[in-house]
UniProtKB/TrEMBL annotation:
<comment type="similarity">
    <text>Belongs to the cytochrome P450 family.</text>
</comment>
<protein>
    <recommendedName>
        <fullName>Cytochrome P450</fullName>
    </recommendedName>
</protein>
<dbReference type="InterPro" id="IPR001128">
    <property type="entry name" value="Cyt_P450"/>
</dbReference>
<dbReference type="GO" id="GO:0020037">
    <property type="term" value="F:heme binding"/>
</dbReference>
<keyword id="KW-0503">Monooxygenase</keyword>
<dbReference type="InterPro" id="IPR002401">
    <property type="entry name" value="Cyt_P450_E_grp-I"/>
</dbReference>
<dbReference type="InterPro" id="IPR036396">
    <property type="entry name" value="Cyt_P450_sf"/>
</dbReference>
<dbReference type="InterPro" id="IPR017972">
    <property type="entry name" value="Cyt_P450_CS"/>
</dbReference>
<keyword id="KW-0479">Metal-binding</keyword>
<keyword id="KW-0408">Iron</keyword>
<dbReference type="InterPro" id="IPR050121">
    <property type="entry name" value="Cytochrome_P450_monoxygenase"/>
</dbReference>
<keyword id="KW-0560">Oxidoreductase</keyword>
<dbReference type="GO" id="GO:0016705">
    <property type="term" value="F:oxidoreductase activity, acting on paired donors, with incorporation or reduction of molecular oxygen"/>
</dbReference>
<dbReference type="GO" id="GO:0005506">
    <property type="term" value="F:iron ion binding"/>
</dbReference>
<dbReference type="GO" id="GO:0004497">
    <property type="term" value="F:monooxygenase activity"/>
</dbReference>
<dbReference type="Pfam" id="PF00067">
    <property type="entry name" value="p450"/>
</dbReference>
<keyword id="KW-0349">Heme</keyword>
Amino acid sequence: MGLFVQLFAFDVIGEVTFSKRFGFMDTGSDNGFFAQVKNVLRSGAWLRQIPALYWTHDFLSPIIGNHFSVTARHGRLRDFASQAIEDRKTHGSDHQDILAKLLEVQKQRPNEMNDANVLSMATTNISAGSDTTAISTRSVIFHLLKNPECKRELVEDIDTQTKEVKLTKPITLEQTNHMPYLQACLYEGLRLHPAVGMSLPRVTPRGGVEIDGHFIPEGTVIEANPWVVCRNTEIFGDDVEAFRPKRWLKTGDRADMERVFFAFGQGARGCLGRNISWMETSKLIPTLFLHLEVELTDPKAELKELCWWFVKQEGLFVTLRPRSKVH
């Protein structure tokens, strides 16, 4: 299941960005793309912590080669994006996808948005927009399967919505927005496992700033970690390690929880693709549990987690059986 959701996320981000799927869901294979994304994340994690490595690598690369995978983002993903951009410029398209928006900005501001910028943004959109969604979806599925009562409540809600003809095929985003327990499961899954595992930096402004009674001088790099922020017991309660979706259904606490919900970052530097990722997961989860009985192959199994900027999971193995139709 872990591989399936990443194949799904890649195909969707290909459609959203270029109106062209990668075809991974059709073949059941990533054709080597995922390994490249992993290398990009590995190099990005190193460079995030030690930026000077980039220039050191650039100077030594004639001797040591691409040792840190610093140029990993210039491989097949970039080639795919480059070909898609070239096809669009040659043949045109009436699709209103992300590439169309980028090219429109380039047309309006050619001095600020050159071909290299368009290619870089399109390539980044693929890697950043697929891994994060797959990580989030895995977390929601895993925690639902590890908590049978939560899974049962969600499936009952999906079945009820289906019987009352409130869900169409395919399920729409608007319909999922009117499913409070589903939305609570998504929030709780992402709270327990934010995709980003490394701290997000900010630089204090001129004149410094006071935070929690402590003065921090200007120009200081301060950071907040999503995994820590999303486990604040003052906000989420003492059971922060528990998967309890109903905590998000308490009206009085909801505003505070959303204010510190850091799975997508916050403020001006929040994730630009948040709505796309949320849409994918919102539609996939109810569709999956509507049509299939999903269980962990080993109910006692835990996921292996590896943090290279994103905290990726391994070991989500499930057993699938068709469900009888809900009338």
